[in-house]
């Protein structure tokens, strides 16, 4: 006789939401179910990394701030902040689900819906009552509706200024951004994340991730407070999405070209900065030389 399959009374569900300009990534993500809390927590941490890689395909994970914590019941909760958006990009959490209780709640909900339907059918409204309610609603709408004013019309009821928001990206001359080093941060009205980077590269710009090396930082809405603080401290040059479009249409201003040329010349005079990776071989060689010195003294003795 084959053994009976044991169905657990509770499972652990990983749910996550991503906020991204790309509609294919934005929104609730498919849930994952595990039978143990340890397996669910481990899978949730890996899911955070997958979301970071998907939301920033042109950068690296160091641009994100990972926040990991465990709630009082031991379930994992994490937030992903920063990256190209500068705000909370993803949330991942583990929840405990009681299967028997869930089934009971479902039955109770179904029966409650049945009772509500019966009550609605048993108490139909009179036509006169419905008409009176419609008249009351019309009267309220007339009272609350704003009265039209003569003269100049007010601004449109939208969060976006129609004068600065464009429906399409303007066309530029070939290589009109050649030599520029750009960084995009925040959310834009016309461009999404991938489109902004692709547009810059198309016209000859270089898209980088290090703030200090930028010629322009194109800032959108919802940029991260930490990144904005660093930009202000370093007194870096920033432009809006609309100013970026104007450079596409008219080219880089001559004054800016001169400043870029002076900066490049100064960087060449100073020479390249040594990175930590470049210093490691030198440190290892110095350590080996220090170890070899006592051995030579003992050999002479």
TrEMBL record:
Residue ranges annotated for the BRCT domain, each copy included: 174-251
Feature: compositional bias, Acidic residues: 125-143, 267-278
Biased composition, class Basic and acidic residues, residue ranges: 251-266
SMART domains, sorted: BRCT (SM00292)
Region named Disordered: 103-171, 250-301
Cross-referenced Pfam families: BRCT (PF00533)
UniProt-listed InterPro entries: BRCT_dom, BRCT_dom_sf
UniProt protein name: BRCT domain-containing protein
């Amino acid at each position: 006789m084959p053994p009976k399959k044991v169905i657990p009374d509770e499972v652990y569900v990983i749910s996550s939401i991503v906020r991204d300009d790309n509609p294919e990534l934005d929104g609730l993500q498919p849930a994952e179910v595990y039978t143990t809390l340890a397996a669910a927590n481990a899978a949730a941490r890996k899911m955070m990394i997958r979301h970071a890689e998907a939301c920033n395909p042109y950068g690296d994970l160091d641009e994100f701030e990972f926040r990991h914590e465990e709630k009082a019941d031991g379930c994992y909760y994490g937030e992903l902040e920063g990256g190209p958006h500068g705000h909370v990009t993803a949330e991942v959490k583990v929840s405990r689900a009681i299967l028997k209780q869930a089934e009971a709640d479902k039955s109770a909900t179904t029966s409650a819906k049945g009772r509500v339907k019966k009550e609605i059918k048993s108490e139909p409204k009179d036509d006169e009552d419905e008409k009176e309610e419609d008249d009351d609603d019309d009267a309220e709408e007339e009272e609350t509706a704003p009265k039209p004013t003569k003269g100049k019309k007010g601004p449109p009821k939208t969060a976006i200024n129609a004068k600065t928001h464009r429906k399409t990206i303007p066309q530029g001359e070939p290589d009109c951004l050649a030599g520029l080093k750009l960084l995009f941060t925040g959310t834009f009205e016309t461009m999404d994340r991938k489109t902004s980077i692709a547009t810059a590269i198309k016209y000859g710009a270089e898209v980088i991730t290090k703030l200090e090396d930028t010629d322009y930082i194109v800032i959108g809405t919802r940029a991260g407070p930490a990144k904005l603080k660093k930009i202000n401290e370093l007194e870096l040059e920033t432009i809006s999405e609309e100013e970026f479009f104007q450079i596409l249409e008219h080219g880089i201003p001559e004054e800016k070209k001169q400043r870029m040329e002076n900066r490049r010349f100064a960087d060449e005079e100073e020479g390249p900065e040594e990175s930590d990776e470049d210093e490691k071989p030198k440190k290892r060689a110095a350590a080996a030389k220090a170890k070899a010195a006592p051995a030579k003294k003992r050999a002479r003795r």
